[in-house]
Amino acid sequence: MALAGLMAASHAAPTFAQDVRPGDGPAAVGTAGEIVVTARKRQESILNVPVVETVISQDQIQQQGVTSLTDVSSLAPGLLLGEAPLEIGTQVSIRGIGTTSLDPGIDQSVSLNLDGLQLSNGMAYSVGLFDMAQIEVLKGPQALFFGKNSPAGVISIRTADPGDTREGIVRVSHDFEAGQWRGEMILSGPLSDTLGVRVAGSYSHSDGYFRNHAVPATQFGAAPDVSREFGGGETVYLRGTVLFKPTSDLTARLKMNYTRDDVDGGAPFQLASCPDGTVNYLGIPFFAPGEDCKGDRVLNVVNLDPVAFPGVMNGGRPFTNIRQKFGTLELDYNVAPQLALTSVTGYYKLRTAAMIGGTYNGQAAAFVAAQKSFTRREITQELRLNSDYAGPLNFTLGGFYQDGKMFNDIDLLTNQALGFGTAPVLLTGTQDVRIKSASGFGQLRYKPWSRLEIAVGARYTDERRNDHALTSFTGFAGPYVAIRPPNISSKRWSPELTLTYTATDDLTIFGSLKQGYKSGSYNLIIPLVPGQDNSFGDERVRGGEIGVKARLADRQVFVNSAFYYYNYSGLQVGVNEATEGTGIPLLRTVNAGTARIYGVDFDMTYQPLPVPGLKINAAINWNHARFTSFVGAPCYGGQTIAEGCNLLPAPVSTTDPFPAISFTDPNVFGGAPSRYTSQDLTGLPLTRAPDWQVNLGASYEMAVGNGTELKFGTNGQYTSRLLTDLGPRADFYQNEFIKLNANVALEGGDGLWEAALIANNITNQYTTANCTNLNYAGANLPGVVSGAPTQGPGGSDEVHCTFDRGREITLRLTLHI
Asked: Which residues form the TonB-dependent receptor-like beta-barrel domain (predicted)?
């Protein structure tokens, strides 16, 4: 078994220490090595917080070379990420609960809290990580303190603040595999006794990790040029921090961020499974020569010929451009010696432009190209009042307001070189979504005696959304059809009860009961059709956890363990089905019936006193996540009645939107496009929900003389088999895998310089957590028949996945000035 092989490996232990920061309520100063967290929006020892979380310190971020949330996932069992194309962004799951829909209108089930700014858009997770102070991964629903969009958990990130002394850092790194250069510069220090400033900037340029072996068939709409190194581009990230402390009772912290990401080719999709081989049933060579239909470093994606796709953006080269501006103004004021008021004002604006060929074909261009412009803007305001009285009763009271909007502009262009006589622009449309959300929350914490805390709290949220759409079926010039789907209104209570028993200074037992939800929204994937309701409903969760936290063996060992059990209803999941009579995929978000997850989280850190500088860590997540009721899920393309596509009979369609193609001729497409439309997925595992994830590792630091230190680290991650796409097919699964990482660094001049070599995924595993099924062999033209006794000429859908990078080797040089 692969797990046995991992037990011999090791995992770089998270070092749970941070500087005390007044910005989250009364300061909690711990002993040396104390773990200070802000899971309840105030500083507390992790030993006293009734929340399961993984904390990654600034030192570990640097040692492990953490520059993205994908790197974070390798250190936090239960956390998995999947990359999605266009404006969708990163899809995040904790314990198998997360966003699986290719829909920019959906909020993530795992929210991102960046310096107090609450974000739930997938693109926000693409922000690179640098100059971080601490990362906290909070597992399970966090509705009380982090709002309505956290039914699965929260990733809370604090960036570094200016210190009391002047600091300058220059850092340069090079990844030899992707040809990626990355540079960072940080200048920080006090301008006066009350004012500090920190300015940080990062720039990276990559040639592209994946190799593109596409062979353009120019007579079928492919451009003659090909981007041979796929996924390259450049990123700019600028951050400014101003910290103002005019008095001991008042702190003002301003964070301003700007990011620019330009990616050539978009997401690294490639074929992972071709159940019918690489035969092009229409006689058009959509498959590239030599296509191996497996995850590796080689993919096949052609550029689009602007002559075949009139109006295509970027000269026909698939791309994604992302611009983000965001920041927070945090004010902390001690209105009394034991009473602190916090105000957090947040602003976020995202602009993206993207274009892809519909099925990422490797020889002939796809039948459809999609290009989009997406904007999301949010203004938020939160107020919190925290008490820290010496008596048995304390409280937190607060309110939150959000004013948001999303604007999505979509064009579906058709390949004129294929000769089907379709209009150059199949559909074009816009959708304008407005969001208004207000909530109040509070928690009472009562200690009948010093070692027992009973905390009860609730959040009430009132959220409203509306969508205004314009759709044209004849191209860019119109005429446009105005469509207004029904308004969405959610009014929900999210109560929480926790018991925390601190038996000794080194042992805590806790339990919690929680309820949370995530608001419904609108499908913004494709232009809206008149009469269509593109809304979906709320996602809700109820359950609880029981856990133990302990420091053992003279505080050399820290242990954290919990059992959790949650029921979800209305789980928002993404589905992919063929539009009746056209073959064009319909991607949308639906509410599944019910799901249940339960399992155990365990982690342990050991720092032996006889061996200073040595840290050993182990972390395990066992998770059972299944749909308990999901009747009526759409069938995948080519699924027969015998394979389970046997629910909801569909009428035979005789619609012929493309006169050059016959949809009812049995000699061409096997008769009627479909017989049944749906299946029963009850009992199926949730997407991105492996039963087991295990991390093991160690790090060691030793002095080698003359102010020089040598640092070693190694870690290994085991992940069991997991589902990557919604359906019962065996090739929808990612097989179990092990990834091994190692790092070595030499630090000299009493910390003035450092040279580090970081090797990730040494075993060169190509893995995925995000796949979709599509009719690749026919570029989504009709021919794949579902719900019939036999398949149509297109056979079964192929499986398309975004694969994580294989082996990465990075050399990094750091200079403190």
From this structure: 316-745
Amino acid symbol at 284 = I
3-state secondary structure of 152: coil
Spatial contact of 803 and 270, defined as CB atoms under 8 Å apart = yes
Dihedrals phi, psi of 437, to nearest 5 degrees: -140, 135
- How far CA 567 is from CA of 305, 517, 571, in Å, comes to 50, 12, 10
Biggest alpha carbon–alpha carbon distance for the chain: 83
Q: How far apart are CA 542 and CA 636, in angstroms?
A: 31
Question: What are the helix and strand counts (H, E) for the chain?
Answer: 5, 48
Among 545, 573, 692, 690, residue whose Cα is nearest residue 629: 573
- Divide the 817 residues of the chain into consecutive groups of 10 and give the mean pLDDT of each group: 37 34 34 73 90 88 84 86 77 88 86 91 81 93 86 93 95 94 96 97 94 96 92 94 97 97 88 94 92 94 96 94 96 96 96 92 94 94 96 96 94 92 88 96 96 97 94 73 90 96 96 94 85 89 97 94 96 73 66 94 95 94 96 90 89 42 39 72 95 95 92 94 94 96 94 95 94 89 85 90 94 95
User: Angle at Cα 60 formed by Cα 257 and Cα 144, nearest 5°?
Assistant: 60
Give the burial string for 67-79 (b: 16+ CB within 10 Å, else e): bebbbbbbbbbbb
List domains and CATH numbers for the chain: 2-816 (2.40.170.20)
- Which three-class secondary structure state does DSSP give residue 313? helix
| Residue 507 CB contacts under 8 Å (≥ 6 apart), including other chains | 548, 549, 550, 551
Secondary structure (DSSP) of 573-587:
EEEEEEPTTT--EEE
Tokens standing for residue 797: 């859908």
- Mark out the alpha helices in 639-701 (DSSP H runs): 666-669
Specify whether the CB–CB gap between 587 and 574 falls below 8 A. yes
The Cα–Cα gap between 503 and 571 comes to 38
Cβ atoms within 10 Å, residue 478: 12
Sign of CA dihedral 331, 336, 337, 341: negative
Please state, in angstroms and rounded to a whole number, the distance separating the CA atoms of residues 723 and 446.
43
End-to-end CA distance of the chain: 49
d(CA 181, CA 533): 47
Q: How far is CA 781 from CA 282, 581, 588, in A?
A: 9, 9, 19
Burial class (CB in 10 A: 0-12, 13-18, 19+), 443: buried
- Give CA–CA dist 560/548, Å, rounded: 6
Helix (H) or strand (E) holding 238: strand 233-247
Q: How far apart are CA 245 and CA 158, in angstroms?
A: 19
Closest to 56 (Cα-Cα) out of 715, 709, 507, 708: 715
* Distance, CA of 192 to CA of 628 (rounded, Å): 60
CA atoms of 775 and 359, how far apart (whole Å): 8
CA–CA separation, 186 vs 162, rounded Å?
10
